[in-house]
Amino acid sequence: MGIRGNLTPQQLNFFNTQGYIVIESFASPEEIKGMRDRMDELLSDFDCSVTSIFSTKNQKESTDDHFFESADKVSFFFEEKAFDDDGKLKQSKQLSINKVGHALHEHEPVFKNFCGLGKLLSTLVSLGYKSPAIIQSMYIFKQPGIGGEVVPHQDNSFLYTNPTSCTGLWLALEDATVVNGCLWAIPGSHKNGLVRRFIRDENGVHFDRPSPDYDQKDFVSIEVKAGSMVVIHGDLIHQSFENQSSKSRHALSLHVVDTKDHVWASDNWLGRRVDPEPLYVSP
């Protein structure tokens, strides 16, 4: 027998009309602690003499081989504001990292186990996936005081399949509030389709067209408690602001695509040497 979906008709209707849903208490306190403890270990062992900065504002300029080669590895990326004028960290590496990605789900058992849970698969089946595969996983820190802004974007821009199939799964590992940089989205914006793509070609990485102008009054905040998962349609316009508070906002961000009857675009920025293993194949 195949896996049965676990989303209610009401949840599916909200997702289809608004472009996202919040599933409260998706992860247990024990699961959250396991992922946070493992990340503490990874950071402790990390040699920060090799630095790479992640920025959604200046990704073309800051993109390097470390970023390109991270598709099927566990790589570390620093915040833009983590360094002084001499290129030295202003504070500990634990408070300077922007994110770790993009293959935690493949190489780290704690994260791999969470990604293989039946409740996650059932959510994807509810959304119509036939052969879902996690194409990237990221542990995002949103550090106190320096956690960078993530500008308005659509996930399908970066992880394009034909036809489009990306869904974001954003798990709060700490409470996410307006003060410490929660998600914001334009409800219903997914109905307008994909507005641009982020591609990689002989000229490096770049968007194929300029960003539209968005009215900030159209965005709504998505404040959630630790353990809640936000499911994000691949065409939903969403963003987050800088964390100007004294509290971090840790989250696990997964992006899923369908591998059945969908073709991964060869000009996506994310180049993998090995195709991702589907979490599930429908009978």
Automatic annotation (TrEMBL):
Its cofactor is Fe cation. PANTHER family: PHYTANOYL-COA DIOXYGENASE DOMAIN CONTAINING 1, PHYTANOYL-COA DIOXYGENASE DOMAIN-CONTAINING PROTEIN 1. It comes from the Eukaryota. It comes from Papaver nudicaule (Iceland poppy). GO terms for molecular function: metal ion binding; phytanoyl-CoA dioxygenase activity. Pfam families: PhyH. The lineage of its organism: Eukaryota, Viridiplantae, Streptophyta, Embryophyta, Tracheophyta. Keywords: Iron, Metal-binding. This is Phytanoyl-CoA dioxygenase. InterPro entries: Phytyl_CoA_dOase-like.
